[in-house]
Inverse folding.
C-alpha cells in the first residue's frame, strides 16, 4: 500500500521513537484532538492536552537503549490511572515525555491510538496543516496563501528535535489572550562546535494602559523606585507600600 511521507516523533531524550505511516488518500481518517478534561489535564500537567488520533495499524515504534542495562520496560513505561482502568498511557521512563494514550472505552476506540502532539518532530508538526488534519477556518479576504517549500532531504530517518515555532498553532492563538505572548527562540554554537546553547524567551505584551498601574506598583515594590510625577508621602506612604 502506497503511503505519503511518514510523520515522526520521539521523546525528549530520543530513546523512544515512532513513525506514523499514512496511506495515500486516507489522511482524513487521522484527526487532531484538544482535550481539557481533568484526567488528561492532571496526567499531562497542562490545562490543554493535544493529541494526534490515528489507527493503530499506522503506528510503529522502536526503542533505542543508550546503555546495555536499559530494558524495554524501563524505557517505555506504561501507566493506568485508578479512575480509567480501561486506558493506558505511555511515557519515557528516563526523560518523562508523555507519548501516547490508548483506551478501549468506547469499544470502537480500541482500534486507534492518540499520540501526544508535542512528541512529533517540529518538521512534521508543520506538515499537519498540509495534510488537512487541522480544523478548517473561514476564509478571509486578506488571507495570504503560503506554499511550503519541499525539504531538501525527504528521508524518514529521525533527526534531532528543533526549537522553532509552529505557525499554524501560533495563528490559532491570535485574537485570544494567549496571543499577547511573544516568544523568541534561538540557537548559539561555539566555533569548534563542542558547545551548543538553545534558548527561548517568552514575553507577555498585554494592554499597557490597563496594566500600567499594576506594573508600576510591582516595580516600586521590587526596586524602591517610583514613576516620575508620584509624590513621596513620607513614612505613611512607605508603610502602605510595604503592606502591598
Amino acid at each position: 500500500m502506497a503511503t505519503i511521507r511518514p510523520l515522526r516523533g520521539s521523546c525528549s531524550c530520543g530513546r523512544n521513537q515512532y513513525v506514523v505511516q499514512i496511506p495515500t488518500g486516507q489522511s482524513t481518517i487521522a484527526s487532531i484532538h484538544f482535550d481539557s478534561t481533568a484526567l488528561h489535564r492532571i496526567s499531562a500537567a497542562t490545562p490543554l492536552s493535544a493529541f494526534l488520533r490515528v489507527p493503530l495499524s499506522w503506528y510503529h515504534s522502536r526503542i533505542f537503549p543508550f546503555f546495555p542495562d536499559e530494558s524495554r520496560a524501563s524505557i517505555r513505561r506504561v501507566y493506568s490511572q485508578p479512575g480509567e482502568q480501561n486506558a493506558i498511557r505511555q511515557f519515557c521512563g528516563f526523560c518523562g515525555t508523555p507519548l501516547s494514550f490508548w483506551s478501549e472505552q468506547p469499544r470502537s476506540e480500541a482500534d486507534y491510538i492518540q499520540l501526544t502532539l508535542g512528541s512529533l518532530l517540529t518538521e512534521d508538526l508543520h506538515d499537519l496543516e498540509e495534510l488537512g488534519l487541522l480544523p478548517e477556518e473561514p476564509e478571509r479576504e486578506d488571507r495570504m496563501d503560503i506554499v511550503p517549500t519541499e525539504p531538501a532531504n525527504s528521508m524518514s530517518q529521525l533527526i534531532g528535535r528543533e526549537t522553532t515555532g509552529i505557525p499554524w498553532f501560533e495563528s490559532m492563538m491570535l485574537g485570544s489572550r494567549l496571543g499577547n505572548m511573544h516568544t523568541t527562540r534561538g540557537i548559539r554554537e561555539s566555533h569548534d562546535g563542542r558547545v551548543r546553547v538553545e534558548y527561548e524567551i517568552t514575553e507577555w505584551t498585554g494592554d499597557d494602559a490597563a496594566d500600567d498601574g499594576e506594573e508600576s506598583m510591582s516595580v516600586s515594590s521590587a526596586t524602591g523606585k517610583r514613576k516620575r510625577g508620584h509624590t513621596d508621602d513620607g513614612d505613611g506612604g512607605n508603610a502602605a507600600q510595604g503592606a502591598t
Q: What stands out?
A: The chain has two domains: 1-135, 174-226.
